[in-house]
Design goal:
With about 110 residues, the protein is mainly beta. It has no helices and 10 strands. The chain starts with a strand and ends with a strand. This is DUF427 domain-containing protein.
Length: about 110
């Protein structure tokens, strides 16, 4: 793993709200801290209402984590394009985030409750 990436269990219970609806809640989330960036909460896929998420055509590559694929959230007020991402096959050093999703906090609310 890159020395500047740290993954640990996120403390407490976390929720994701999109368009006023709770689309996920977990007490099994992970916190990924990468260098000076704000830590990102990764939610287990089993704790997300995946019926609201549709895979998009968007992808990106991180030299430390691997290839990310993105999801659009279908909400009451319309789609939130590429609001979530997942590393389906992350690099060995960050394998814990496989099967997890992260969300852009500029698009949805990610809150500890």
């Amino acid at each position: 793993m890159a020395d500047h990436i740290k993954i640990r269990p996120a403390t407490g219970t976390w929720v994701i709200r999109a368009g006023g609806a709770v689309i996920g809640e977990s007490d099994r989330a992970l916190e990924l801290a990468e260098g000076d960036y704000t830590p990102v909460i990764y939610f287990p896929r089993d704790d997300i209402a995946m019926a609201f998420l549709e895979p998009s055509e968007t992808s990106s590559t991180c030299p430390h984590k691997g290839e990310a694929r993105y999801f659009t959230i279908q909400g009451k007020s319309g789609p939130l394009k590429d609001a979530a991402w997942s590393y389906e096959s992350p690099k060995d050093g960050v394998a814990e985030i496989a099967g997890h999703l992260a969300f852009y906090t500029s698009t949805v609310a990610v809150e500890q409750v």
